[in-house]
Amino acid sequence: MNPPNNTELQAQPRRGSLFFKLVAVMLSTVFLTFVLLGFFFRTWWNPDVRESTRMNVREYAELLTHEIGTPPDYEKAGRLSDKLALGIAIRDPQGAWWFSHIIPEPIRDRIQSRPIPDTVRVFYSDGRMIAWIPSNGHVFVFGSRQRQPLETGAQEWLVLFTGLPALWLLAWLFLRRQLQPVRELARGVKAVEAGNLDARIPETGSNELAHLAVSFNAMTRSLRERLRARDQLLLDVSHELRSPLTRMRVALEMAEPGTAVDSLHEEVDALGKMVSEMLETERLNSEAGGLRRKPADLDALAAEKVVRFETQAPGVLLEGSVGQAVPLDLDRMRLVFRNLLENALKHGRDGSGPVRVTLRKEPGFAVVEFHNGGNAVPEEEQRLIFEPFYRTDRSRSGTPGYGLGLPLCKRIVEAHGGTIRFHSKAGEGTTVTVRLPVA
Asked: Which among 90, 222, 335, 405 has the fewest CB atoms less than 10 Å away?
């Protein structure tokens, strides 16, 4: 139930990113624009041009036929073919064919196999413009040279194949630069979600995204100031409560024993514990109240606390061991073990077995698990379990406490460089896992 980190965010498929979608839209727009332009020119402009070209070719072929003459001057036809790069074929009335030398053999065979038209005919065939001109028993055939797909010069193709990728690269760099604030904002949001209210994102540029960055930074500053004001208020109230609580304890010690007095004792002790936890949380934030770590026996600490609580229902069972010294602030870690054991016992009364405290060694870490078989915490509430003053619904129904124990445990464990995780599932119970670095 922990928020995803930056690595998990970057591991998400890029196909769903805003940048990918913008690039896809841009490329799709370019492609569809060319498709529409091609459709437009093919259906409207191109037929008129072809018809005009066909008429011009017909007039041109008739002029060439007149210049070659009837009967034809084959030498002049050969010179015109070389000069104009135009294929010329002539069929005499007896059916004999003459071809200019630029007409290849396959094309000659195709010309000879075609039926002879009775009238002038101009048409396209395989990229060539062909004109058949009957004249005085002779048939003149004029054909343009076929345009090859790669007929343009090398420079044009070089410009095409380097210019387009360069253009797309520039567009990609431009979009990436413009969308950088979005990535920075996503990182900032994830940092705030993880609890880092000191997160800031660069306030560069003057567009809408830059204004959004300014608003985000102002929001985090406001949240941080409000939370600090709240913490300061709680700290001040806690200090002020200590004196009246002490006087109440003294007064209760002097009162006659009874059910009402015992109940008041419990309430005063609960208030005293809450005040101590609030003050301890604030101490962790100050330099003077920082951790004082030294090598300690985690197995002995766990055994000490298990003995303290083993007489309470439903009982406590200690399993496993770490087997080496761990650098700890022993007093604060006692507070963590006490809070977690009290919590496990309170919520494990309905379970089928005792609370289990399991110790083990993992590479670089000492691990302690506190497991109870009670009712599970709803999944939607688990992510809030370490928030100050948060209590699950079932806790409000009859379990004492103010929702400060688990947040304090989290602060202490993380101050040691460790982690604390909460897992609860119906039918399995609840497990709180503490990992502490052994170095």
From this structure: 222
Q: How far apart are CA 41 and CA 26, in angstroms?
A: 23
Cα(231)–Cα(246) distance, integer angstroms: 23
Which structure tokens are listed for 83? 């000069």
Quick one: DSSP state of residue 152? S
Using 50, 70 and 90 to split pLDDT, how confident is the model at 382? confident
Q: Which residue type is seen at 327?
A: P
User: Mind giving me the DSSP string for 162-226?
Assistant: HHHHHHHHHHHHHHHHHTHHHHHHHHHHHHHHTT-TT------SSSHHHHHHHHHHHHHHHHHHH
pLDDT at residue number 99: 94
- For residue 151, the 8-state DSSP code is -
List the one residue out of 230, 333, 334 whose CA is nearest residue 278. 230
- Give the model's pLDDT for residue 262: 67
Measured distance CA(322)–CA(329) in Å, rounded: 17
The answer to whether 98 and 73 have CB atoms below 8 angstroms apart is no
List domains and CATH numbers for the chain: 19-143 (3.30.450), 180-260 (1.10.287.130), 291-437 (3.30.565.10)
Instruction: List pLDDT tens digits, range 15-35.
Output: 556 667 777 777 777 777 777
Residue type, 198: D
